[in-house]
Design a protein that fits this description.
474 residues; mainly alpha; 16 helices; transmembrane transporter activity; Protein NRT1/ PTR FAMILY 1.2; transmembrane helix; POT_fam; membrane
């Protein structure tokens, strides 16, 4: 789908360049000339989005399927290294896209730029299929989404059942070949979905449920519980992405001196590359230098849990917003002092290098949180939910984007009342973007506190119970 979308974009650009008059007359004849320039890109980007939505969750889950060997299972850091290097390579490809491909599109034409993208997608598709004989391919046995809805319906239908305090007295429907005999005690109301009331009426001769919408397996119940358990922690990740969905730092960079030397000037939109570079450097150093050095100093293997790394990533995001607010406060003061209050397009005598700390910190924060969040979902969910675990990241980003728009519009409406200048005014020198960032910092701080509460309520992750028991042994 991504390949088809890129081809459509390329074809649209080529046709627009070579057949503009013909297309215009054709559109006028169909009376859709007003909508065609909008509908065609929407259709093309829709195809790309569908393809991208299918690739990202599946590729992460497919990659974890390859780590099923005994050597990987005995190596506790294998999953962590996988996600770290995956994020690092993704960031590296983004770096190439924002430099090399953007340069080609700007200086050599959009057609050539999209043509290169088409060839790259085609090459990756061919390369993927060439490796087919070497992949570990797990066959899906049932629909996960259907199973989750079956648990909800079955638990509602069986809502009148009473749960005994002794789970041994209850007969649960166990999936064939499953090692889970009884459901967990958390979210006990869902356990009613897998209670066998009458084996002769509820089960077929081969042990399967006669009506899966009235009786589910213990595995299905635990899958829904696993999803519901991570929702609070997932929501803190959604809030942490709110700040990343705005381009205000680009406006700041536009109004600042971006020259390096006397001739070279960094484009304002390219400052985001420093965040990508810092993420790549951090991920490489974390696994190859920081952890080995810490293990050598302490005399024992050092490993930070996924929740610890996510928490540190949230703290760095909070710190990055604070730094950005401080820099904006100074930038605005300099602009007013120099008499540029009514001229937001002018460049003030302040170096844009002051924006680098925010980008560097935000890059490390994003790398830490994204990799640990992926690892957390994959490790906590059953194997059958690997794709759902990967999709949660994308859904969180989409919800975060909507929340960012809501917060921006709310602050804009509240601060411009009474004829006052909005904090997020189009005139960056008259607005108060520093106050806007401080609001974000406050939200980030509250989000960190909520994250701590959610982590305590969640309890230990899989494998942490064993580590705690081993540490408590004399």
């Amino acid at each position: 789908m991504c390949f088809e979308g890129d081809v459509s974009v390329l074809a649209d650009i080529s046709d627009s360049a070579s057949k503009a008059p013909t297309l215009c007359r054709f559109h006028q004849h169909l009376q859709i000339s007003r909508y065609a320039p909008i509908l065609i890109p929407i259709f093309v980007f829709g195809i790309i989005s569908i393809g991208d939505g299918a690739i990202r969750p599946s590729s992460l889950a497919f990659g974890t399927d390859q780590l099923t060997g005994k050597a990987y299972q005995e190596n506790a850091s294998a999953m962590e290294k996988y996600f770290s290097w995956l994020y690092a390579l993704t960031a590296l490809s983004l770096l190439v896209a924002l430099t090399f491909l953007v340069y080609i599109q700007v200086n050599m034409g959009w057609g050539l730029g999209f043509g290169i993208l088409v060839l790259l997608v085609l090459f990756s598709t061919v390369l993927f299929y060439l490796g087919t004989p070497f992949y570990v391919r797990l066959k899906p046995k049932s629909s996960l989404i259907t199973g989750l809805f079956q648990v909800i319906v079955a638990s509602y239908r069986n809502r009148c059942l009473r749960l005994s305090s002794l789970s041994e007295d209850i007969l649960y429907h166990q999936k064939k070949g499953s090692t889970i005999a009884r459901p967990s005690e958390r979210l006990r109301f869902l356990n009613k979905a897998c209670i066998v009331q009458d084996p002769e009426l509820d089960l077929s001769p081969d042990g399967e449920a006669i009506d899966p919408w009235c009786l589910c397996t213990v595995d299905q119940v635990e899958e829904l519980k696993a999803l519901l358990k991570v929702v609070p922690i997932w929501s803190t990740g959604v809030v942490s992405t709110i700040h990343s969905h705005n381009s205000f730092p680009v406006l700041q960079a536009t109004s600042m001196d971006r020259h390096i030397g006397s001739s070279f000037e960094i484009p304002a939109a390219s400052f985001g590359l420093f965040g990508v570079i810092s993420a790549i450097i951090w991920l490489v150093l974390y696994g190859t230098v920081i952890l080995p050095l810490a293990s050598k100093v302490t005399g024992k293997p050092v490993h930070f849990s996924t929740k610890q790394r996510m928490g540190f990533g949230l703290f760095l995001s909070f710190l990055a917003v604070l730094v950005l607010a401080a820099v904006e406060s100074v930038r605005r003061s300099v602009a007013i002092k120099e008499g540029y209050s009514d001229d937001p397009q002018s460049v003030i005598p302040m170096s844009a290098v002051w924006l680098l700390p925010q980008y560097l910190i935000a890059g490390v924060a994003g790398a830490l949180f994204a990799t640990s969040q992926n690892e957390f979902y994959i490790s906590e969910f059953p194997k059958s939910m690997s794709s759902v675990a990967s999709a949660l990241i994308g859904v969180g980003g989409a919800v975060g984007s909507l929340l960012a728009s809501f917060v921006l519009n709310t602050i804009n409406e509240l601060t411009k009342r009474g004829g006052q200048e909005s904090w997020v005014s189009s005139n960056i020198n008259k607005g108060h973007y520093d106050y806007y960032y401080l609001v974000h910092a406050g939200v980030c701080l509250v989000n960190i506190l909520c994250y701590i509460v959610c982590c305590r309520a969640y309890g230990p992750c899989k494998g942490e119970e064993v580590e705690v028991m081993e540490e408590e042994k004399p």
